[in-house]
Amino acid sequence: MAEQLDQLLIVDGDNAGRVGGGPGGYQEAPAQLAPAVIDHAARSGVETVLVFDGHGHDRKVGRTQVRYAGTETADTLIERLAHRHQSDRAVTVVSSDTVLRHVAQRGGVQAMSAREYADRLAAAPADEPPRPSGRIRYKLADSVDPAVRAELERIRRGQKPDA
After folding, report:
1. Which of 9, 36, 59, 88 has its CA 20 to 30 A from that of 158?
2. Are 112 and 100 in contact (CB under 8 A)?
3. Confidence (pTM)
4. Residue 12 and residue 115: Cα distance in Å, rounded?
5. H-type helices in the chain, by residue range?
């Protein structure tokens, strides 16, 4: 029986953020996309690296790493991460960039469009079992681990990580 490799999803955050179509534009993409990706990674159990162009504070929240490319491009960082991990994991690169997906596939890595990934993020809550009917109100904050919620709040405020 073949050994199943752990999965690693590497997401081009700039592409996925644009496809998601949230308000706020380019500057707001990390704050809007990161919570959805972090939640999806936690629910699916798949290690995920969310990569953005530019400078920011790299951090790890649950099964998700949020990385900023710094002085290089996000595409370059994504290619390097995919190549580095392809021998010990089943790697999938998520991007709308056709060239990046082609380079990933030629290197033996799976590729997925940002649109397909955005559709998966949007469909993720539908995987939950139906809630009982009644007058009980639940808040999303009640279902998120307090440590994850605190880290998301730090991301939202643009603060540096604790450690």
Report:
1. 9
2. no
3. 0.70
4. 12
5. 13-20, 29-44, 74-85, 98-106, 114-123, 140-143, 146-157
Q: Which amino acid is at 85?
A: H
Pull the structure tokens for residue 145.
């681990």
Contacts of residue 151, defined as CB under 8 A and 6 or more positions apart, other chains included, come to 59, 61, 161
| Both structure tokens of 69 | 């490319």
Q: What's the CA gap between 58 and 47, in Å, rounded?
A: 15
Query: What digits encode the pLDDT tens for the residues 79-99?
Result: 999 999 988 889 999 999 999
How much of the chain is in helix, strand and coil states, percent to nearest 5?
50, 20, 35
The residue to which tokens 């073949």 are assigned: 2
The token pair that represents 35 in the structure block:
């919570």
Report which residue type is found at 66.
Answer: V
CB 91 within 8 A of CB 105: no
Going by C-alpha positions, the residue among 75, 56, 66 that lies closest to residue 12 is: 75
